[in-house]
Each structure stands twice: as structure tokens, then as C-alpha cells.
Amino acid sequence: MQIREFSGEELEDVAGEFFLPMIARTGPGFRGRVAVQELGGALTLSRSHWAEPMMTFRTDRMAARASTCDRMLFCVYSAGRGRVRQHDRCAEQPAGTGVLCESRSRFERVSSTETWSMTLRFPRRLLPLRTAEITEACARSVPATAPAMLMLSAYLDRLFDVADDLADRQRADAGHAAIALLAMALRDVTPSVPGGDGPEEVLLDMMRRHVREHLADPELRVEELARRHHVSVSHAYTLFERIGTTPGAYLREERLQAAQAMLSDRKQNWRRISDIAAAVGFLDLRTFERAFRRRYGMTPGGWRQERPHTGSAPMTRKQGMPQR
């Protein structure tokens, strides 16, 4: 578990590290606190406390950045009140409700009171809904009284409390179970999307799935990905623009996330760094190390050394979130 206390001036750094890169606006006396449980890969669960009102927003330019275009946030207020605006919709968020946001388009989040909240951050591909359904689910309040929402809120709260005692594989399984509950809750508020995804969306999903299933293939590059799906390279770029990235950036991000997960798994400690690099399609170790450092701020070896110690001690009452 990672715990951070911060001022308003530090909020943007904290948001970029634990949630998404955002622009923040707070008062001069703002104080916040966040505790984060990593559930594997880019899947995290956090508890946050904002002592005063605040606003964060993500611009069109920020939404187009390749490193975070696939991220989703689902926020549940346990106390306080706010609102989320995205896709020309504004969702009010009283205590107990949940709201989904996607990182690949601009959004605004305002907390109008002191708030306590939980946030599930995860890759978009984990949510078992169609592309159009996910977009339609964003910025729609999931009522606190909805049965699926009651189940999800209780599950997230309990998962956060016990995550320190779970093995890495158990954390990953528990995180995926949370996503399944979230999908159930979202289906209750998402309008019916007629007709399904068009052929371009289907082709894009096929290409993304092919990338995830062939990460170890060193021959898989943008040109080869396009050839295998019988499209031109320029058309491949056009398809990936739909999710705010490029084919090459998407392939690199998926490879680095897979490597990060392997380096975070104690059961993989027997594998050499070069073996892990090869397992995700990097034949040159130095190229892998440079890409990993740019993405995560440290070398693969440094990541492996630090991760087993993170969250090794349970959070005490003094360390924990402020009590209401």
C-alpha cells in the first residue's frame, strides 16, 4: 500500500501518479490524503480524502496522450458531494453514487464539499462492454440504492481492507471480480446502443486483441500488424486515432504493462530481466530498459527490487484514512 498526504500545489503530481494526468484547482488551504492498493498491472484501488472543495480536469490535448489513453476511472463517494462532466453530460455525485470516466476524452470533476471517496482505476480493455457502451456509460450516476451498486461498494471497501493480505495472483483475481461487478452496475444505467459497433470498431478491436495475444512475437510491428489484418499502414493509424493513440504506441504500452506485471510478480523472480524482455517482444535488452525507464521512471531491475517491499506492512489506525 502506498500512502500520500499532499497540498493543493502537489495535487497534480499525485493525480498523475495514482490516477491520470490532470490540471487541478484548489484553495490555498487545501489538504488531501490518498492510500493506494495495486491489484496488478494498471489496476489500482484507492481511498482518498479531500479536506476542501477542489476541481480537476483533463483537456483534449491531455486526452490524446498515448501513455494514458486506455485508462478508466470509477469513483464512488462515501461522503461529500460533487459532479462529473464528460461527453456533454453532467453527472451529480452525492454520497454513495458511482461515476465512470474515460481518459481518452476531456472531462471535468468537481468536489463541492469535503469528500471521502474510493476510485477504481483500470485499463479500458478489462471492462466487458462494447466500445460504444463504455462511452455511453461515462458521466452517468450509478444510484447508491441500485442492488449492483450496493454490492460493488461493499466489495470495493472490503477488498481495500484485505488487499495487503492477498498474494499477487489473488489481488489480480479480486480486481477482475471488481470489474465484473462494475459492468453489472453500469448496465443498469447505460442506454441501449442500437446496431452494435461498426466494422471499423470491430477491426480495431481485432487488432488490439491480436496485439495482446502476440506480445512475445518480435516480428510484430506496425507494418506487420497492418499486413496481418489486410489494411494499409495509414489506415491502421486512422483506426488507432479512435482511441487517441498510434499503433506503435499501443503496442509498446501493452508490452511494457505485461513486463511490469511480470516484474511485480514474486513468482517470476527466477526469470532474468532479459528473459522478461524477450517474453514481451523486446529482443534488445538496452532498448527494453530505456523504454521501461521512460514509462515507469526506473529500470526494470529497480522496479523488481522495490515492488516486493511496497505495502508489506498493514496500515495502522494512525496511518489510515481520516475517520468520519
TrEMBL record:
<dbReference type="Pfam" id="PF12833">
    <property type="entry name" value="HTH_18"/>
</dbReference>
<feature type="domain" description="HTH araC/xylS-type">
    <location>
        <begin position="205"/>
        <end position="306"/>
    </location>
</feature>
<dbReference type="InterPro" id="IPR009057">
    <property type="entry name" value="Homeodomain-like_sf"/>
</dbReference>
<dbReference type="Pfam" id="PF14525">
    <property type="entry name" value="AraC_binding_2"/>
</dbReference>
<dbReference type="InterPro" id="IPR035418">
    <property type="entry name" value="AraC-bd_2"/>
</dbReference>
<dbReference type="InterPro" id="IPR020449">
    <property type="entry name" value="Tscrpt_reg_AraC-type_HTH"/>
</dbReference>
<dbReference type="InterPro" id="IPR018060">
    <property type="entry name" value="HTH_AraC"/>
</dbReference>
<keyword id="KW-0238">DNA-binding</keyword>
<protein>
    <submittedName>
        <fullName>AraC family transcriptional regulator</fullName>
    </submittedName>
</protein>
<feature type="region of interest" description="Disordered">
    <location>
        <begin position="299"/>
        <end position="324"/>
    </location>
</feature>
<dbReference type="InterPro" id="IPR018062">
    <property type="entry name" value="HTH_AraC-typ_CS"/>
</dbReference>
<keyword id="KW-0805">Transcription regulation</keyword>
<keyword id="KW-0804">Transcription</keyword>
<dbReference type="InterPro" id="IPR050204">
    <property type="entry name" value="AraC_XylS_family_regulators"/>
</dbReference>
